[in-house]
Records
---
Amino acid sequence: MNPTGDSTPETDGATERRKKSKKPNYSRFTQQELPACKPLLTPTIVISTFILIGVLFIPIGLASLSASGNVVEIVYRYDIDCIPQQSQDDKLAFIQSSLTNKTCTTTFNVPKNMKAPVHIYYELDNFYQNHRRYVKSRNDKQLRSKAYELETTNCAPEATTPDGSPIVPCGLIAWSLFNDTYSFATQSKVIEVNKKNIAWQSDKDHKFGSDVYPKNFQQGGLIGGAKLNESIPLSEQEDLIVWMRTAALPQFRKLYGRIERDLAANEQISVTIENNYNTYSFEGEKRLVLSTTSWIGGKNGFLGVAYLTIGSLCIFLAVAFIVLYLLKPRTLGDPSYLSWNRNPDGH
Amino acid sequence: MAGDGLTISREEEEEEEERSLAPLPSSGRHHRRKSSASAASRDGFPNPAHVRHLSRTETERLASSQRELADSNSRIVFIGDPGGSDPRFETPRNSIRTAKYSPITFLPRNLFEQFRRLSYIYFLAIVILNQLPQLAVFGRGASALPLAFVLLVTAVKDAYEDWRRHRSDRIENNRAASVLDPQSGRFLSKRWKEVRVGEVLKVLANESIPCDMVLLATSDPTGVAYIQTINLDGESNLKTRYAKQETMSRPPGEDHPVDSAGVIRCEQPNRNIYGFLGNMEVDGKRVSLGPANIILRGCELKNTAWVIGVAVYTGSETKVMLNSSGAPSKRSRLETRMNRETLLLSAILIALCSVVAICNGIWLGNHSDDLELAQFFRKRDYSDGDDKKYNYSGIGTQVFFAFLMSVIVFQIMIPISLYISMELVRLGQAYFMVRDANLYDESSNSRFQCRALNINEDLGQIKYVFSDKTGTLTENKMEFQCASIRGVDYSGGRVSSRDNGEAHYILAAGKQILKPKMSVKTDPELVRLLKNKGDTEQGKRAREFFLALACCNTIVPLVVDTSDPKQKLIDYQGESPDEQALAYAAASYGFVLIERTSGHIIIDVLGNRQRYDVLGLHEFDSDRKRMSVIVCGPDKTINLFVKGADNSMFGIIQNKVDLSMIDATKANLHAYSSLGLRTLVVGMRELSRKEFEEWQSAYENANTSLMGRGKLLRAVASNVERELHILGASGIEDKLQEGVPEAIESMRQAGIKVWVLTGDKQETAISIGFSCKLLTEAMTQIVINCNSEESCRNKLQDAVAMYRKFAVISPDPFENALTGTGSTKVSMALIIDGISLVYILKTKLEEELFKVATACDVVLCCRVAPLQKAGIVSLIKSRTDDMTLAIGDGANDVSMIQTADVGIGISGQEGRQAVMASDFAMGQFRFLVPLLLVHGHWNYQRMAYMILYNFYRNAVFVFILFWYVLYTAYTLTTAITEWSTVLYSIVYTALPTIVVGVLDKDLSRKTLMKYPQLYRSGQRDERYNLKLFTLTMMDAVWQSVATFYIPYLAYRQSTVDVSSLGDLWILAVVILVNIHLATDVFRWYWITHVAVWGCIGATLICVIIIDCIWTLPGYWAIFKIMGTGLFWLCLLGVIVAGMLPHFSVKALKEYLMPSDIQIAREMDKFRRINAATMEIQMNRFSMLQL
């Protein structure tokens, strides 16, 4: 697209005789006359757009509100309750000590019928899984294949043992694997918790290798969290896989397991919690969540409210514009509105 | 200023034009060139008589003398001996190199060129910052990608252009030249690139000249050669060049071995294409050489069978190569404004970074105790056992790092892609301007040219147009209109419209018919008078008058074949259109100049061929303002014929002549110039033998003198040009170009002030002003033509008083004139001449002049010099913000064109110097209207929108990143993958803005041409100003809030992982900004659809590809999240909530406060609906297509 010169050097042939006309060839494209659609925000378009959005959004909002309302959710914050009374003043010492009994039990009431599967989540708050130091501290190559076992780039300070052999899986994320456990019972009958298939299938198949076994893991001076069974390959360590899908926000839930049976309303469920994970050093919070799901996910009314708000705002705007067009009618394209016609001396 | 006569009336201008500021030291036309060349180079120039009669004595004198040319500073060329001329191979071979780079130097040089832009340094600095391990926010590859991409695109563009240059260089260098072989004495074929200084070359007719060479011999016995310089300076007239008699006699070649050939001393290579200084030593004699003895590379030999010359300058030292300079670099107004907003954005960027850094510090401070053990921080490194900190060096350093890291993360707040997009868009716009059939000039076969690629959008904001007159407003095709002979006006030819073919004088020369190429309408009475053999005084004078016109010139008649073998045309080749017009006029009245050889001319006087010996010729110069010839007629009488400007001629007339005749002539002259005709007066005197001999000896003395020859020659001329009989006067029309009055009217409506700056006389300027509707009868004319500073001051004060007086009647015409919203005001026109401007410009009076001039609707400056033209442009430029445009065609317009914000060259009759200096070049003045009103308007609105959109687009993205950073303990984590961050502005959203920037049209060409007032939106900066910028930024903040917080709130306390949420955000923001663009597009072409929707599709594909890379943490996330309903609801919610304010405000504003452009758009649309014209079908067609 050299704008000035597409003149080819004239050859000494007979063509030189007749000077070529440089007149640009006509085409709709070069003359900028391609057919085009010229949309204009006419009152009809404006009003119908607003009405359309309103009509679309309000039902969606209602539907998602009701979906969210149908979700039954039990949330129990246990990080303080699970510390014995005498240790409340020094929670950190309690949790760090290997001698203390960290088991605690509680019961709660199922408020409504919960249809299977009931998802069990643990929820952490104030835990910055998206902290820059933290998210980077992993090595996906090492996780994937035994061949990359020595690959510990980015994993500091949990890259190698002091003698230099690699930690598998390396990095802060794996090191800090959540290690509280829950078991559920109702009237002393144990409720099965299915911990299979809590991780993404794609992660199990492609991200975490079936030939990679934990090695030198959690053997440093500071224990960050759970230990791993060294005889199970990483692709089967679903808790680790779930944990390593780092959460987007400092308050997050992770799937712990599923209860594959319905929980009836008013059923009393007793929970035994192994409170091992140290969130006390940074004022973190831990919750246990039991929840059913719907097409919209968990219990969250926000989207429904937002849709209702936007929808009704649009209806309001539609009405406002109708009123405006009625009160201040203006013929579109009336030349008398042109500035030089409004004050005729204007040039 | 174009084509004013070689010797004709435009005297003042000539004088001034010598001071031309043009980059070339001399200006457009021949006589000027000569006068500006040094005296020493004058000898033997197109004065065949002089060559013939005087050369012997002249050369003898010179041979024994020292030239002004210092030996130390001269180039010595041994004719035919390249080894001797250049023993150490210091001079370049004749190969040329327009290409900038070689394959080896390309990379470093091109990078160096590119990094001269400051913004690139900024981006480079950020890339380097990112390489530090402490700060590595992005992967190393990803961070360098945008800059690398931009550099690569530019480099590929440069490489392609350079490759084209290489190719044309190669073709040029390998052309064949025939070079004399010193051994055999034969001319052998050699490639151009192998030609060396000192070699003797032979060039045949219609061949190009391979290098600058001094003529040694030509096929013409008198040594004349004709060349066409169209490639050099654009002039299509043939120029005459001469070989020296000394070398003519024995051309080097087989007969004359070269070893006896001479030595040439000449000046070092320089870029003055109209000057050459040198001498040649042949057989012990010294012969001086001037510009008439050299033929330059780039010219073509015409009408001459062959020439032999010696190469003196080769390759890069040729004058044409020394003159090839690139287009001037200017910065557009919009870009300058944009820099202001860029600074603002930098401030916002720094603010964001500071917020992040400070919050980071506070957070660290608050949690300093917790972080020892917190799993996600792990301040302490336990792995080595000893108690050291892991990657932590105190709050202060962390804060500093956080700041730098946030600069890296938020860098695209300053949009790097904008620079490359703007270049591409301008390229596209230039493509459409060049291809526009409406800007193609049929008569000169020239397209529009975009020489400067970075000021397209300035065309949409022009407030002042400074126009040259001759050749710009007028065609520069002179036509003889009327004559006044002895005070009797013969303007019948002008009045009678019938074209009396009889008057075309046809000669039967043997079996052939000769006919002048152009005929002039003749006055029947004058024809009768001439044909009437009766010896009335009037008849005699009339004959002498036309004889004078036929012989007092430097026209070369050429006989051209026509399709009819029996008929031949006489084509008058000359350098002054006025002279051509006069020669054609004389031919039409029966005085046909048939032949010019070096010593005589043959004129067919009413059927009889007569030979006139040309004894002497005094060229035009700006002191005398006239030219004269001394001819010896068939009756052996010696006559002096003089033609010149009226005031110079009336000073040298015979005193005892009939006064009433003089008065009548003056009256006629006044009448002619009032009609806009260019006038000149013709006089003659019969010389006695004694007088002639006196003159001859003085002339020879002057000619052979060494110092101040020009001055002496002038004195000789002045001495003989006295006591003239006035024969009469002629009026030549310089026709207005087509469509000029309409163009000026359109521009006036568009709020553009047109100022005409001309070298013409005041009367001529005013009459042209009337004929092109610039001036109207209703206007009050303020005329300032004074000879002293005092009177200028008084006149200006009067003028100020005058507009104050009008100010009493109407509120404030001065203010109104400035704002363009005047009420009932009396329109005023200022007419000012060059002499007054001398006293005004650069003095305290400038301010007064500015006030008066801006209060006037029309300003006409006459008799202005090139420097003054530039002075007037800078008068406006320095005092207002308004954009100025200068348009002209001649060398004397160069300074004005370079001074103005936008310079336009008319590529028409005159040389190419104006075009070479211009930013844009086109064939006709009237093309200004479509150029400004249509293309200028489009370019401005497209570019303005594009800049704003790019700022907005990147700001939305940066704010989304910023909001997220607030939830990551201020640690600059990005949820959006680093690849998406990088690709965002160069792939995800780049193409639509470029397409819209090139193609979108707010209004159709028809509407814009019909309502020139719409142009004012550009003058008012309607599409790009601080208010719009602020609003756009507020919109950007809102959209970023909607995009970030709707998913944030919807996914709070959920299992969502960072990659999935990041994918949602990037998709949402890309769709949102593209929809934002879509709501602002005026016209949807299929290309626009492809670009906008294609880009969204491309983004989705890119995100999917990124999520298919298993080494990235976000593997498979997009598929997971796309499978949930929440994702789609969030996406829809984000888009609608984000667009709601923009859409509502847009609808409200367009309805309640419609701009002119909005109303015109509605008119476009509604006309279409009502009239159900073709356009409806076109639209249907387009709908179907889509």
---
Amino acid sequence: MTSELDIFVGNTTLIDEDVYRLWLDGYSVTDAVALRVRSGILEQTGATAAVLQSDTMDHYRTFHMLERLLHAPPKLLHQLIFQIPPSRQALLIERYYAFDEAFVREVLGKKLSKGTKKDLDDISTKTGITLKSCRRQFDNFKRVFKVVEEMRGSLVDNIQQHFLLSDRLARDYAAIVFFANNRFETGKKKLQYLSFGDFAFCAELMIQNWTLGAVGEAPTVPDSQMDDMDMDLDKEFLQDLKELKVLVADKDLLDLHKSLVCTALRGKLGVFSEMEANFKNLSRGLVNVAAKLTHNKDVRDLFVDLVEKFVEPCRSDHWPLSDVRFFLSQYAASVHSLDGFRHQTLWDRYMGTLRGCLLRLYHD
Amino acid sequence: MPGKLKVKIVAGRHLPVMDRASDLTDAFVEVKFGNTTFKTDVYLKSLNPQWNSEWFKFEVDDEDLQDEPLQITVLDHDTYSANDAIGKVYIDIDPLLYSEAATVISGWFPIYDTIHGIRGEINVVVKVDLFNDLNRFRQSSCGVKFFCTTSIPKCYRAVIIHGFVEELVVNEDPEYQWIDRIRTPRASNEARQRLISLMSGELQRKIGLKVLEMRGNAVVGYLQCFDLEGESGLVVRAIGTACTLDKLSSPAAFLPACNSPSKEMKESPLVHPPSHGCRSTHNSPIHTATGSRLTQNFSVSVPTLIYTGMGSGSAGKEGGPFKALLRQQTQSALEQREFPFFTLTAFPPGFLVHVGGVVSARSVKLLDRIHNPDEPETRDAWWAEIRQEIKSHAKALGCHAVVGYSESTSICEEVCILSASGTAAVLNPRFLQDGTVEGCLEQRLEENLPTRCGFCHIPYDELNMPFPAHLTYCYNCRKQKVPDVLFTTIDLPTDATVIGKGCLIQARLCRLKKKAQAEANATAISNLLPFMEYEVHTQLMNKLKLKGMNALFGLRIQITVGENMLMGLASATGVYLAALPTPGGIQIAGKTPNDGSYEQHISHMQKKINDTIAKNKELYEINPPEISEEIIGSPIPEPRQRSRLLRSQSESSDEVTELDLSHGKKDAFVLEIDDTDAMEDVHSLLTDVPPPSGFYSCNTEIMPGINNWTSEIQMFTSVRVIRLSSLNLTNQALNKNFNDLCENLLKSLYFKLRSMIPCCLCHVNFTVSLPEDELIQVTVTAVAITFDKNQALQTTKTHVEKSLQRASTDNEELLQFPLELCSDSLPSHPLPPAKEHLESASSNSGIPAAQRATSVDYSSFADRCSSWIELIKLKAQTIRRGSIKTTVTVEKASPVGDGNFRNRPAPPCANSTVGVVKMTPLSFIPGAKITKYLGIINMFFIRETTSLREEGGVSGFLHAFIAEVFAMVRAHVAALGGNAVVSYIMKQCVFMENPNKNQAQCLINVSGDAVVFVRESDLEVVSTQQPTANCQSSGTEGEVTT
């Protein structure tokens, strides 16, 4: 006796969260059944393995049919074939677009092109995430990228509108898209200690302050043309950053800056002497990063540079985080007292974001 | 010109890409009704075209309105070659033809293609202007309401229940016409769909005419079926119960099947058809039976069993004269009718006086090509024969009517088994006539009939019993005689006293038969049938005993014929009726008493059986009050009642083709283990696994013993096909396979629905078919309903009172809620989220996490959820805009999570415009009140594929198709303005595959009643405003009993 056909269709589509997770994780039906058996579900419910097999098959079939709709989530809301309560629809979408930390760290900042199929194999082996799941996650990134690429307005809003993701997940995707678009290097060995969260945090700050969209948000520029790109860094801004070079190039200015910072921080910093000794190096590092951002190559290496020029020196001197915070605040603020320096707004736009990023990047 | 049909094509969405080059579609729409076709403009290059067409107007006869479906075809315009069809929508406009139902059909319909399935949706608006033509009721029967529901619909009351209506139309099946060889599968499927749609429209119209003739205004319990006879043609037949219904505008009871009819009903105006005018006959391709000439084919009529409670009886003495009087009365009311049959399964209180038992008849026929579709008398005659048989069976049981009546067929090649069954009953004549009943008799009736046990009392005369039966005095009233076991096809009467809970009882049976041709085959089948009936009955009886119960309700026995086997599947709901005696146990007797080890084995079995009975009694909470012998009285001869099965004499005593089906011993229910067969029977008895705790199941409308339903429901269809290995085909192996198939299916259902515990599977409907030699297909449709375990049964009384009170106050105006469930019209008072949480939390409490895993729609929750989520989304957006974009503060809480990408709170979800439509095979929706019936849904779909593997194999194909059928039903209901389908039934699911050719085809026929319901919780607000109405309603209730 063999089962030729075995289906269950509910007027309300049944969604089993556990099976959905197994499916998303790319397990085959057989593996999923084995995993479910191991979870002790048979004992809890008194079911047999055959029942579990049939149930898993049913759910997999349903998910397979839903997948087409999940590629364009608004379709899932308007389709008539599956009656799914809104809360469940939201869950389906959210889980489908969720991704693994390990996976995203591998592809963050890489070009989302077809060529990476072979790479996915490697990533799968490296991270232990099934190839199927890797493919889904990669395709999700690519799909979101494609859809919002040419769109105007806020990146997060666009993602949210077209993929109906939660605010948090939409921001994560904004970060992924932003990184992919600017091709920031994240895979270097010295960057390995950083989590996706760290990068996403920085991405958000950069989107808010360094892109064209950031300027567009200001009430003084109502022109919708300016509202265009949340994804590209503001070229004009990057060009202007060259002006900051004076802070390290002008010896007097550098000395004055140093003395202002030292005066303010004397006695308040545990690592005062180290700071004093290193001030010029650090300042040079930070300002040079800014000045170099006109070149695409240097933009890509932004995080490498920040870690090399700031995080690592401080870390080797064992600066506590609180001291880094004090220093950066004072370092940024003191520039306002430099009479000869005219680019205060530019400095704030640069340093405000950079300070946030650095504080986030500064950990072991 | 009695009607003007107006159609507007608004827009399309999610259309498929028809032009590979541009990845777009140039869509336009053809609107066809009868022979008239209109076209919209071509909307270039879009998958979401906005046609916004003018109103297409069709001026048509109302006869056509009833017969024809509106056909909407979406096409892709092609300048150089023929236009490609994207798909079609058939809209039955019947619901627009009666005044109280829908006034407009408007909404998104899935565009359906028989090869590709659903391909996008189209928004259509349909209206009908009916001219008030006094001459109209001749060929058309506009205005007659149809209900699939097998009880008096909730917002109506029965003024008169007229009786049986039936009709049948035949035609050639387009699939078997010569033209089919040269046309595409799509064209052939569409021809078939359209033909069946036409035929059912015509059938409905003709039934309507009959109803008007009987001076009724509605058909209740309408059941329409298709017989795909293959080469010999296509038969569409329908049966129903004609009624005169009155819309309840005044306060009415909520829970009972219908409003208690009081005497004032006689004063209520009867609906009479207007004068008949003259009309020319409509020239349709479909033909129906009118003549009476009969061309008899080969046929075998099968001796039929009558099931009642039977045992060795003792004579009673009292109750004679009254019964006679009653009989006379009923007889006169019913005798005018050819067939005193009622398709209803639940009745107004007082309607059912006595129940005799199940009557059934089967007949094996050889199909012959319908040479002249104009004269389908053969089929008519076949059914007439069977009905006649049923009628005489009922008479033999001292009954003049048959209730819970249904008909079915099973076809394999050229052999067809026709079956009919019902419950013989004595009815209260009040409901059958208008105003002819004497008042005094009625009064006597009321006095003499104890409401709670009356229906159990035997309708036949004890002194002149049609068969030897074991009778006792009713355990409830002690006045009348009752049988020891009662089998019926109806639902449990609402006023019946039941002890404990009920359960689903199934008897399953397979019999191999030799492959044969024509007459030899038919003879072989008819020889097997009586044995199958007998065995099915024995199984049922054994299982009933094993459960410690004494009555079966909703009994449905299906015999399916295949090439080389016959399958029997009987489903029923067992209960313990307080009025009937306690069932005796099962005793096992061996044949070889000298063998010691054998004896031991027997006693071991006996012990197991006794244990099982005890366990079941506990499980189903069957603990009848102990009654001492003295109270019961002397006429009861034996201390323990035991039952046996006996074949009754069917019809009058002159027909003595007796098969002695009775066991040898007269007074004990004994299972004799004399061969391996019997051994296996006993084993199978014991292997039936009870449902896991928290689950109950029944095949009736409601589960006896559970009243506190909560509002969560989940209707589902499950299909399984198994392939038998042809090597070891013995009856035993076959039985085991079939038994396992059914048991595993049930187990799967319990597992899948575990998140709903405690819950009950209601209206579990199994259908067996044998599509091929070695294939067995089982289709199950049922609904899972949650109930409140903690709420004690005592509280149900107050619950009913409360709902009475609630229902009593709602006026029509107050119930006119906006029908759209979509949150477009964002409610001004969304429920506070906290409350929702509490609700869902409390409903979940006490359930282990594993059981909660599969989550089912918390529907009441879902209805509001979208708006609630919308609100959150708005909030979230404002927060975002307010804080993030404008501030550059770094010290604020980190916006990005710390690697915890899962288990996030439910995200906001954009506005859903798809309203929730509930589907249920029951006639009611728990926790809600049906306020309007919008019309009957009767849909027939064919789906075919030539890329079976690509569509996920047979399972993927059928899964998708059934989901699509559900979607199309929901879309039609929503377009009518409804939010639920009640009395939903999947009448046919014919699946054929040819994996070698990578092909499969499936036909599905579904029906139900589209309704509007309002949640009781929403009504509560209304009811508190008018507390006085309660007194009023209790007043009317009181009057009924005078």
---
Amino acid sequence: MPDRCLSLTLDTAVISPQDPTLLIGSSLQATCSIHGDTPGATAEGLYWTLNGRRLPSELSHLLNTSTLALALANLNGSRQQSGDNLVCHARDGSILAGSCLYVGRKWYGQDNTCEEYHTVGPHSCHIPKDLALFTPYEIWVEATNRLGSARSDVLTLDVLDVGLVWEAAGLPACAPCRPRSDTAAPFSLERPGPGGGVCEPRGGEPSSGPVRRELKQFLGWLKKHAYCSNLSFRLYDQWRAWMQKSHKTRNQ
Amino acid sequence: MNRREGSLEADSSISFLPHLEAKIRQTHNLARLLTKYAEQLLEEYVQQQGDPFGLPGFSPPRLSLAGLSGPAPSHAGLPLSERLRLDAAALGALPALLDAVRRRQAELNPRAPRLLRSLEDAARQARALGAAVETVLAALGAAARGPGSEPAAAPALSTANSAASVFSAKVLGLHVCGLYGEWVSRTEGDLSQLVPGGVS
């Protein structure tokens, strides 16, 4: 008995490019071409939708009798991790072909190596400036000696995640931080809300927590450069314990 | 029970063996439960693929899945034993398809653990329901496969599947999830005709 196969018959037309990866703010030129062996088929009347929304007709034009072109500018970031659904439709609305767009963030820089290895103690790395907010950083350690090299796991973090989770979780009744006007902060904290206030933890269990050297540095920076009263490692530990409990509850 | 070939409708003049009756009820209840799960799976699936999946009126081309299609319109007119055989065969073919969809979704939606778990559960549940239907058929003296027929081969996965476009993969997964729902629902309906005293 012959193998039975999963097969697809979405082959009336094809979109090019297929499943491109693009930067936020970039442009896309795409085409929907009807296969030559489709009897009576023409690109006349075809139209595009993106994530289910019909695109304005002025964004597309006929390249030839069998191809409809599309020009999109200043793309927004993808709405879902599986990609935005760009679909080519026949005049009657039926789906002829699709392509998924992956529109993501720009890589803000190249790899940087640490410049301050001893500022906060032996085997440490101090990053005193040029940290960007709302940006995921990947941090890892590479060690080399005469016998060989080793590389640590990659730690991914956003320096603003701590403040965001605190506020989103509502765990402490805490006013958000704002920069001191008398310090030259390398960047500004764009958190709305009233200034001042006291962070009152709502209870929780202390947590053993992961290595926290970078967070300690960040907390130190916050105390120096922003108005955040009552920030402490104890508060952070309580937040971590609460997050772990919440995560377990969600996964049950 | 009327034991003529192909005729399995419950006959009030024959009392089912208690364990067989219990097994039929249990299998029917399982099918009913899985019908609800299949609806939830479909909702979860379309949500993760993004619009237009899940929008009212979304109607991608019906894809051809060699080896498995939905219940035919003529299904309801078949003898009950034949319907249950077809149900069991479809349920036996679905796990491999659901697994393939799960693997692809693990690439497309790696941060959708609930969807991935639901697909994994659906494969396991389809397998369990298919086995239960076959057990019922065997207990009733109506084998899952008639004499002379070869075992149905589970649909094999095309090696080109992983290279298929993302949109096509999304549509294919939608189709498989839809088939899963259609067949568990069909199985529930067919089994309801076997439940002594009717379905509560």
